[in-house]
Design brief:
This protein has 713 residues and is an alpha+beta fold. Among the domains are: 278 residues, Rossmann fold (3-Layer(aba) Sandwich), CATH 3.40.50; 155 residues, no CATH class. The protein is built from 11 helices and 37 strands. The strands form 9 sheets. An 8-stranded mixed beta sheet has the order 30-31-33-32-34-35-36-37, sandwiched between helices. It has a 4-stranded antiparallel beta sheet with strand order 1-2-3-4, with no helix packed on it. The protein has a 4-stranded antiparallel beta sheet with strand order 5-6-7-8, with no helix packed on it. Helix 7 packs antiparallel against helix 8.
Amino acid sequence: MSPSDPTDPTGPHAPGSASPADDAPPADAAATEPTAPEPARTPFSRPADVAALPRIGALALSVDGTRLAISVATLDPAGKKWQSALWEVDPAGQRPARRLTRSAPGESAPVWAPDGSLLFTSTRPDPTAAEAGDPKPALWSLPAGAGEARPLLTRPGGISGVAVATGTGDVVVASATLPGGAEAAADEERRKARADAGVTAVLHESYPVRHWDSDLGPASPHLFWAGPLAEDEDGEPPALRDLTPDATPPNGAGEEFTLSPDGRLLARSEEVPDGPAGHRNRVVLTATDGSGTRVLVDDPLADVYGASFSPDGSALVCVREALSSYAEPPDYTLLLVDVADGGVRDLTAGFDRWPSAPQFSADGRAVYFLADDDGRHAVFRVPVDGGAPVRLTADGAYSHLQVARDGSALYALRSAYDSPPLPVRLDPEATGQEPSPLPSPGAIDALPGTLHEVEATAADGTRVQSWLVLPEGTSADSPAPLVLWIHGGPLMSWNSWSWRWCPWVLAARGYAVLLPNPALSQGFGQDFVRRGWGTWGEAPYTDLMAAVDAAEQRPDIDATRTAAMGGSFGGYMANWIATQTDRFRAVVSHAGLWHLDSFTSTTDAAYYWEKEWGDALTEPRRYEQNSPHRYADALRTPMLVIHGDKDYRVPVGEALHLWYALQKRAVPSKFLYFPDENHWVLTPGNSSVWYETVLAFLAEHVLGEPWQRPALL
């Protein structure tokens, strides 16, 4: 649900900053299979098997371009959580990948220092110190040659982010710090005093008070300079310099920051007030010698963030996101900024897509960036001295883009709906690229079906692009039941692999899965977003129905057995569908919006949504026209409602309100409630139960089979 999904690096920017224990098969496994021929066995046949697949989540290129590090998450021995380890991948694609780290707590956030050491964060115990209390993430270093990893830095609030200067090895870290706790001893003393007194209360003096699944305060992020951290350094840890001493709760200094190659300047995104209870971001420069901070880019009409230095440190490129309004959705462009005088030039003027994650080329003459484009998340290149952006990649969705300093290559993680994220090497200038994966863990040997790109025409003549997953064995003689799966956001699109919203789990049970990109989806131009702005129940809904209509015309789709489901904004659309049509046999709503006024008032970033919807007291029209709860008496379709209690983006009250409306009207319904999950369902056991419950509900209402309650529920 926008503001951006933090699990999705392709999504738009968020204010202030769109995945099982073993589960036994049903007692009568044959009774729960679709009537179509049984697909071949794959890891997607059981959610527990999906959880056992390795998942690549980060990519880092060494300064000299000779080594690649990735993070790989796998199940722990007990099958109750995922553990992340660091692996090395050969940039040339010749040698097999090898594992670099092993610890029960795991390792993450890899970044290379110029001396070839690999820095990472971990809660693994320090072998040289006695551990006490709840362990916090510390900064560790793995030497360039042989040797054991050693701890470099720790703070009472842990280390949550790190930046390294590519030229000097200077390090800046982010750490949650209590007011007055710049010195580690003072921070620890304040934490202990609260704990000893049994105090967990937080006094807020400004909005917001929470974010996604975290309660903000009383600590807030501070940024600390540590200087160069030599590989052979021994003895006392380095003294840290607080570069953000004025950072205060709830948001503090933020954790989006980068260092100039010479380590002298820290560029960071700083949150500032924007009207009552509102916020926006600007880019500031802080001298790492402690001599002060100056504002570099401050636009009262936009969020500015995502800064990246040029190779010589003389310029920055950053993202400008025009603030949305009641009349207009946001729009994005890239800014080229002179570090010395703050002069700004628009690099992507007239480019009708939303650029993100910009980085300079090795020679500083071009900028690479990512953007959604027609159901893909592509790599683009734009010349610094002027010219139109050029798309370098064909299919797929790219993230974690890395530029080799010698200009010879780009590296990234590539995924698609038929491939999880895998590391690839790209040519810096060629177009239409379809790179082969570099050897690494994480590849899928077989999928239980095939992926197709399809399209439909909306009532106003607009093209609606979709992905369609067909299970094995599907044909005109054996058509598959259809599940409409609606993406979240809403300002995103279906374009990349997702472990949380994985259509192949449904395909393994014989379902075709339709993944449309309706109005509000990004990657189809500003007018396409504008079609649904403030009118979620209109063009987004009719686009979805047009996509379903087109799919149902296919001879390999059984139009008599269909369901709709979605999460977040997709959950809103599922709720809206349930009140507008009875064409589906079942509807599944995960973390869905039901009462727009209630949602806008209680979500973690109310000011963001009020820009689009208006003040419910003075501008009620959009709420009245688009809120599903106003049409509760039209509920007829069986519904499965799913929600986590720790969801602060779409608070659980939305699900409770919907659940009562269904029960009061005797609509066949179930409520799958997770007391300790958030907007997503992130632990292996609960993820497995999520899929099993959805599959059981669909089997009952779409396939007409007896209800099979998941064994662990």
